[in-house]
Specification:
The complex is a heterodimer of chains A (510) and B (101).
Chain A (H helix, E strand, L loop, with lengths): L5 H26 L6 H30 L7 E3 L4 E3 L1 H28 L4 H19 L3 H19 L6 H32 L4 H11 L7 H18 L7 H8 L2 H26 L4 H24 L4 H23 L6 H27 L16 H4 L1 H15 L5 H15 L3 H27 L12 H19 L2 H10 L6 H7 L1
Antiparallel strand pairs in A: 1-2
Helix pairs in contact in A: 1-2, 1-4, 2-3, 2-4, 3-4, 3-10, 3-13, 3-18, 3-19, 4-5, 4-10, 5-6, 5-10, 6-7, 6-8, 6-9, 8-10, 9-10, 9-12, 10-12, 10-13, 11-12, 11-17, 12-13, 12-16, 12-17, 13-15, 13-16, 13-18, 15-17, 15-18, 16-18
Chain B lengths: L4 H21 L3 H26 L3 H31 L13
Helix pairs in contact in B: 1-2, 2-3
Amino acid sequence: MPGFHRGDYLLALPMMLLTLFALGVLLIDLLLDRSSKVINAWAAFAGLAFSAAAVHNIQRAFADQAARGEPSSPFFAFSGTLMVDRFAVFFFYLFLAAAAITILMSVRYLEVEDEHHGEYYALILFSVVGMMCMAAGNDLILLFIGLELMAVSTYILVGFLRRDRRSNEAALKYLLLGAFSSGIFAYGLSLLYGLAGSTNLQQISMALGNAMAPGKARVVPAVALVTTAAGLFFKIAAVPFHQWAPDAYEGAPTSITGFMSVAGKASAWALLLRIFLFALGPMRPLYVPILVFVAIATMTGGNLAALTQSNVKRLFAYSSIAHVGYIMLGLIAGTAFLPNPDGIRGILVYLLVYTFMNLGVFGVIASLRRRDIIGDELDDLNGLFFKAPTEAVLMLTFLLSLAGIPPLAGFYGKYFIFLALIESGHYALATLAVIYVAVSAYYYLRVANAMFMRTAGDRVPVTISPGMWAGLAITGAATVVIGIYPEPFLRMVNWSMHVAQNPTVAQLLR
Amino acid sequence: MTVPLSYYLVLSAILFSLGVLAFVVKRNIITVFMSIELMLNAVNLSFVSFAAHWHRLSGQIFVFFVMVVAAAEAAVGLAIIIAVFRTRETLNIDRVNLLKL
């Protein structure tokens, strides 16, 4: 049994630092009195910054690899359980950015809710550790532990407003359905382990390749696929496994709703891509029909249910379900023939732009929470333009971006996925998706209509804290800049997929 | 004489299905929570039997982690259930219905 080396710990350093800072936040929280809880937020912020520096260190190692003229290969640590490749580095940055923006948006919100405790920030950091394990796991054990660390932290965060009945109820429903889906997922993992005799993703892939050879019984592989996929579809909230999402999103603290809808979703997608592409690759002929069915059901269910919502958080929960449907189209295109990086690239671009625009939306909703006003009904947005014009214009930007209107960031997410769909010959699916995008414009514009065309129902002014301004500025700037000048961001995505150096592929990507 | 692997797998599948069934049918929150534990134990049985079949340890290690996760979920779950009970004084899942479906 080989020992662990210095390099192993360097690769795990982003997670170790976050854990350290999370524990530190828990400790210093005990020393702080009620008025100085904001120090917790700064400590958590510092943890994210240190972790980002450690990720940057790993990124530099990839640059050194390229400078030496070696082909890009992932780094393995801890006997091959942790695999940090560029794909993982991309997701590390995404999670850190989402967590940082969430913290900026949370401080004032928690004060208004009178639940300003250090555990909140510690749990955010812990859930980011779990997400990192999900993105970088190369072993079923690490993936499962990462998933559960993320999920259990999020259960608590959803129920963080412990005196609020809606928050309690959301936490309960999320916990029950989340634990249920974890059970199904773990059952699928046990069958995969049984097929391969190993928890390593590559070995599972090889064993599945043998099991899928013609003339063999496929019952156990099929059951393993269905249970694993069902567990994963629960986590990304795809129809017909989406029932928890609207309830959990509506009841959770608004800042956490934003965090779950971007970071939680991106991590679930990272896990899904790891499992579907790395481990279940040989079962492609079996799972593509499932994906097509789920993608159509998700786009239909999400978009149609969003049309009639009167609660904004619920509306955006259904909208995020619809977005999962579009992202799944990218996976269908990406697995239409192998290797086809276009669809996967679409997914990564989509998750990147979605992080900023959706966090921005939930930031605006969180800022509407004032004393005595919950601010999450559509009517609470009435006349926002006359109260806080800059914020209303920012919200409009996010809404148009979510609807995919150029030249905003959301356009590129949809553009690359639909392009990959058309290139891989899925014309019917692409047409259907475009129709649903048009439908989605209706409910996004309904929100815009409330902000700009109606008069306010209450006279309570909307005050925006400096942290919220910073969060809104970052998300707004990213939404506009990625839309107008997408090149560095696309280069980053291409880099994360190992394809940028290959000249022929680079030409295809133009 | 040893018991063949398939017996364990069938037992595990039956336990798992019972857990899923109880999750769907039962209305008391604690019972629903226990049915999830039953599902996870079915997973454990399946892991252990595969580990014995392959003569590898990793399956047994996975079982430890599943138990850890089940314990963590139980701790968080019971805390949330207590919070719900305090604000509503009921453990019937049908009466926890403030958020419309």
